[in-house]
Amino acid sequence: MSGDGTGIEGARERRVRTGGIELSVVELGDAGRPTVVLLHGYPDSKEIWTDVALRLRDRFHVVLYDVRGHGRSTAPVPLRGGFTLEKLTDDFLAVVDAVSPAEPVHLVGHDWGSVQGWEFVTVPRTEGRVASFTSLSGPSLDHFGHWIKERAARPTPRRLAHVLGQGARSWYVYALHTPGLPEAAWRGPLGRRWPAMLERMEKLPPAASRDYPTASLPQDAAHGAWLYRDNVRARLRRPRPDAFAHVPVQLITPTGDAYLSERLYDDLERWAPRLVRRTITAGHWVPRTRPDQVSAWLAEFVTAQEAARQEGAPARTPAGGGPYAQRFGGRLVLVTGAAGGIGRATAFAFAEAGARIVAVDRDAEGAARTAELARLTGAPEAWAETCDVSDEGAMEKLAAKVAAEYGVVDVLVNNAGIGLGGTFMETSAEDWRRVLDVNLWGVIHGCRAFGRQMAERGQGGHIVNTASAAAFQPSKTLPAYSTSKAAVLMLSECLRAELAGQGIGVSAICPGIVDTGIVAATRFAGLTEEEQRLRREKVGRAYTRRGYPPEKVAQAVLRAVLRDQAVVPVAPEAHALRIVSRFAPRLGRAIARIDPPL
Amino acid sequence: MATAVTDATELDGFREVQHLAYACAEAVAARLAPGVTEREAARMQREWLRERGVRDWFHLPFAWFGDRTAFTGFRVPTQFFPTGRRLEPGMPFILDLAPVHRGFTADVGYAGCLGPDPLHDRLMTDLAAHRALILREVRERRPLRAIYESVDRLMTRQGYANRHRAYPFGVIAHKVDRIRERRWSPSLFGFGTRSLGGLASDAVRGHREGWSPLWSPHRFSDHPPRAGLWAVEPHLGFRGKGVKFEELLVVTDSRDPEESAFWLDDDLPHVRRWQEEGALA
């Protein structure tokens, strides 16, 4: 806590008078740097931005202020009519003139802060005062009005579903229009219970809630009801036809927002031509739950816009614009077994989506090659690390190094694996140890080392484990390999259950026969060296004839992370074997007895 | 059909037509601009060569733009023929042409990119290792099928996909020969009938003698390199970008390794490029 009671360490507070009220404005960082204004929503105060502000203050001049009637700012008298978007725009301009009189500011808004932000960047009188806008969970009321009107005017079943879906999510908006009652609730039981409710709904770690929400919450929430009452009905009934953004906009959409449908932003390119889209798996209070990712995207966007402004050219848009790029742009992805096959293809697929890549493999040269090509494919940064996944100490050391140098991993792909053929009786104890060490212990070490970091950070993430179709299908010629992969599948399912409460997804990918180098690295137990070589050639050719490319598995990995799928069979044979194992296990057992024709 | 082409004057004839073909590819590549379609690019090549006396073809010129350079989604052979796909800035392209001039055949491939692209440069540079690998292993007289697999392995190690597998029979190379010039030289499915006839008679003869004029991953290519001229075309692909080169490799019966196999000509655009980069070291 800082001495001036703002709740943000190292903040300098000043009071700005405007339109008969006094706003509490705090600043962090060097005032000579580009100014970033962070604007809070409802029912919040500027302290919602604490975590993000602390992450940005070394690089930017960070400014936060309490909206009128909230936190340490005073409320207008009377309240009715005191919260119109026009008056909020006056406040914003007064703050900007005070903190950055010469240069335009980069605006960031969450919830009602974003609703205000849209107003600020679409009205002519702020032109030249705003350099860019980042919107989190708050649409423009004008765009929203048009969105409803268009869908109501031509109601196809899908459009109707969109409107009804959003209509159901907006229940609290109707509730806030009731006179008197919301104020009483907030000043009474709701205000007392809100912090605990928020913690439960948003899965906030308890530690994060100590300074938030602030003690002024009941007052803020009661005053803030007038934000809705003064603006929503008026704007939705008569949305402005000219609400075009005059600055570049970055839109960060949480996929689990209980109050706003993702569909709201479907036509946004029409209103904001220079739009960069991002998606994040989180609930509504992203500045609290995902401060690392939000501040990384903010810093990247603001830096790019600043550079472009200095050069006088439009900023380069980040790689691609598809759903993968929106989701994985700038995130840190670590892939083991990245020197070839599925691992390498996965690294490239993430690289193409703009993710930062750590390519891990025993084969240093192969990993370096993957990292180099990943950079050429679109990864802003990519590194190669040499590590044997079966070595616990080495994995722990790697995890510490990655966390220190590149950050906490957002997506972990435990992919490294080896093959082992031959019947149970032919397989030696040493063979068993080797295959379990890599295929199972490799995954365990990966999940322990990196999964723990993810869980401790408390900002979500995803773990992908490469199992195999052999995890569903017993076979008399692949006992060790199938056992190891079945264990990986079960491990993934258990871990998924454990981490579900922390916003970390776990997926098991079960590919069928994929044309990779795994056969060349497979041992066939019980055969001489020469027989092994011939067998490898033969099996290798069969895999090549099958010709299923690892790139398709990589696509399945990205899709699995995007949709948070639990078990993903890839290739038709994998789907078929899964169906057999579930609905016709006796058939599966009969297949297990067949000698493969190789 | 003559098979073992080792005569110096004959080689000059092949060298000349290979030069002509690469000159054509460079001239057409220089004229490629956004909006040009594959069909237009193929026509440009045809016209350029016809003006210089080419009347017959091993195959008619091909042009592939964008992800078609990596044969993305190719299932049937008709997809190789030029389409209405338009060239856009930053797109890779490949021109593949095989003119017959005064009875000598050339078959060349030229890969480029409209505008600078570091990834495309990297792919081109990495292709150099394949030229060296193929020559080395042919001189070692390894079976063609084994050499094919070595190229495959190198591509995998480099992180690329083998795209010559998409060609008919998955060939990385095929034999070319002299053909007698006739006034009427029809073509069938884009291939000159005389050249096809030459290949077919080689195939029949090779079938009896245990070799094949097609250098493929299949069992019929499991024999040491056969003396003659081979048009070698390693083609690698990476996420919707493909590059290749194609040029003539001379294989002889000589016992001297240097003489037993050599590239017909080193004065070619891609080889010059690699020499400047030092990629051949």
UniProtKB/TrEMBL annotation, chain A:
Residues 331-512 form the Ketoreductase domain. GO terms for molecular function: oxidoreductase activity. InterPro entries: AB_hydrolase_1, AB_hydrolase_fold, KR_dom, NAD(P)-bd_dom_sf, Sc_DH/Rdtase_CS, SDR_fam. It comes from the Bacteria. PROSITE patterns: ADH_SHORT (PS00061). Keywords: Oxidoreductase. SUPFAM superfamilies: alpha/beta-Hydrolases (SSF53474), NAD(P)-binding Rossmann-fold domains (SSF51735). Belongs to the short-chain dehydrogenases/reductases (SDR) family. NCBIfam families: PRK05855.1. This is SDR family oxidoreductase. It comes from Streptomyces triculaminicus.
From TrEMBL, chain B:
GO terms for molecular function: aminopeptidase activity. Keywords: Aminopeptidase, Hydrolase, Protease. CDD domains: APP_MetAP (cd01066). This is Aminopeptidase P family protein. Residues 13-253 form the Peptidase M24 domain.
